Structures are given as C-alpha cells and as structure tokens.
Amino acid sequence: MERDFEKERQAFADSWVLAGRVEDVPGPGNYYTWEKTRVPLLILHATDGEIRSFYNSCRHRGAPVVRVERGRNRALRCQYHSWTYDTTGKLVSVPDERDFVDLNREDRGLVQIKAETIGGWIFITENLNANSLTESLGDIANKLLEDTQLLIAKRETKNVRTNWKLMQETLTDNFASTNDETSTSGHSLGEDSYAIPPNLLHVTIEKHDVIFTTWPIDENTTELEIIYLAPPSETTISPAEDSAWQKEISSIQKTIQQVIE
Ligand code: FES
Fold first, then answer.
1. Are residues 92 and 210 in the same domain?
2. Do residues 21 and 126 share a domain?
3. Does residue 107 sit in the same domain as residue 184?
4. Best of 57, 58, 77 to mutate for ligand 1, by most ligand atoms within 8 A of CB?
5. How far apart are CA 45 and CA 74, in angstroms?
6. Is residue 153 situated within a structural domain?
7. Which of 232, 255, 205, 218 is nearest to 146 (CA)?
8. Quick one: which of 87, 119, 158, 243 has the fewest CB in 10 Å?
9. Residue 142 lies in a domain
C-alpha cells in the first residue's frame, strides 16, 4: 500500500503541476518557496524576465538557499557560508574561493527544473524529459489561455481527512458538468469543466470559475487548494477586497464544504 502511495507521489514529480500564478512573482527578483509535492522548490521571476524553478538547496552543503516564503532579491545568498547565486541559478560568488580546490562554479549552479506559464498560470515539473506544457495539455491548453485575464478573488488551503484521489473523485462527481466515464483520466469534462492529471480540476460553481488541486500529505490526508476566480474588474477595487464578491465566495464556500465534509 505504502509503495503504491510512493508511486503516486512519483507521478506528481513526473507531471506538470500547477504551482502558482504569474502575479505571485510580479517583477524581476520576486520569488516564493513551494513544497506541495514535499520537495523544497523555489519559483522566481529572473532578472532576464523568465520564470524559473530550482531545488531550494545550496550546492555547497545542501542548506536551503531561501528561508523566507516570499521575497524579492536580485541575488540569492545562502545564509550558511554565503555562496551566492544569480536569478538564473548561476553561482556568482564564493567567499574564500581559493580554499575550494578544483571548484568549478559552472558545475555548482542551482539545479533547475522545468517551469512554463500558460494563461497566467505557472506550471512546473521535475521531469526534465517531459514534453512542453502546451504539448502535454493538448486541447486543454486553449481553455487555460482563456484564464489570462481572470483575477484571483480568493485562495484557500484545507487539510481534509481523505485520500487525495477520493477527494478528486468526489469533487468531479459533484461539480463537473458531465457523466463522462473518462473523467478520472482528465481532459474535458463538459463545457465548463476540465481536469489536468494528476490533480487539477477546473469547474464552475454558481457561475464562478473555481480551481481545485489535491495534494497527498499521506494516504489518508489531502491538502486541498481552492482558487476562486473573478472576471477582470471594471473598477479599481480588486475582487479580494470587494465585499459583494466576498459574499458570493462565502456562498460557494458553503456549497464546497457540504461536499467535502
Ligand atoms: S551550505 Fe550554503 S553556503 Fe554552505
């Protein structure tokens, strides 16, 4: 059983998974740490404009390069012995470098994984042989492109005492507008819903777009992330601060709660 669970976790490492929104790293130097697949990662907006992801592990002795959840910096300095990396992952400074015989900085940059964006979403995969995100998504890529202008009205995370696949099935059965038998293998689930394996479900609840991602903590516990989306605002008030929006979200939250309880 445990081995099956570990296999499932490997599937997460091999797949493209949703890891954030471009607004999370609005400018060059912005970064955040991310551990939903139980691997410490770093996602950043590099000074060359690219969004990149690295293992958050210093190439000296493996300490976390970044220790705060979010920040902005044009260089990443490990607190242990001050090895410093630029935002492309290159090792740019080593104190007392002459003491490290045969150190080749070129070989000791941060280890990068794949990161790509579509429709304002950031996806990552540890699988360096994975097809491009667009190729992997197939027809669903067009649906994600429609999200480009959407705003995040609210995000929340809950730990739910159930297996992540059961959680995914429950959400699909209750919110995806289809009886499609192929639903667990992903892709289109009807006009307003789609799934991206292994763990993303995009649905419409009370006319609003909602994204669920389910992350296994252990065999019987799931971290459920819920992202409530709003259309582009015609006012200067963001949906996150708009009381009318927040009222609508409360109503959707109640509906979701009834389903996952
Ligand atoms: S572990 Fe990072 S500089 Fe030593």
1. no
2. yes
3. no
4. 58
5. 10
6. yes
7. 232
8. 243
9. no
Query: Residue 81: CB within 6 Å of ligand 1?
Result: yes
Ligand 1 within 6 A of CB of 167: no
CATH number of the domain enclosing 176: 3.30.530
Q: Is the pLDDT of residue 189 over 90?
A: no
Q: Are residues 229 and 106 in the same domain?
A: no
Handedness of CA 106, 109, 115, 117 (dihedral sign): negative
Residue 77 CB less than 6 A away from ligand 1: no
Q: Token pair of 92, please?
A: 């740019």
Tell me: do 153 and 128 sit in the same domain: no
* Helices H / strands E in the chain, number of each: 5, 16
3-state secondary structure of 60: coil
- Does residue 26 contact residue 70 with C-beta atoms inside 8 Å? no
Same domain, 76 and 170: no
Structural domain boundaries, residue 124:
2-134
Atom of ligand 1 nearest to the CA of 63: 1
What atom of ligand 1 comes closest to residue 83's alpha carbon? 3
pTM score: 0.91
| pLDDT tens-digit series, residues 17-56 | 999 999 999 999 999 999 999 899 999 999 999 999 999 9
Q: How many domains does the chain have?
A: 2
Greatest CA separation for the chain? 66
How many Cβ atoms sit within 10 Å of the Cβ of residue 19? 21
Domain annotation covers residue 144: no
CA pair distance 112, 124, nearest whole angstrom: 11
Check if 76 has its Cβ closer than 6 Å to any atom of ligand 1: no
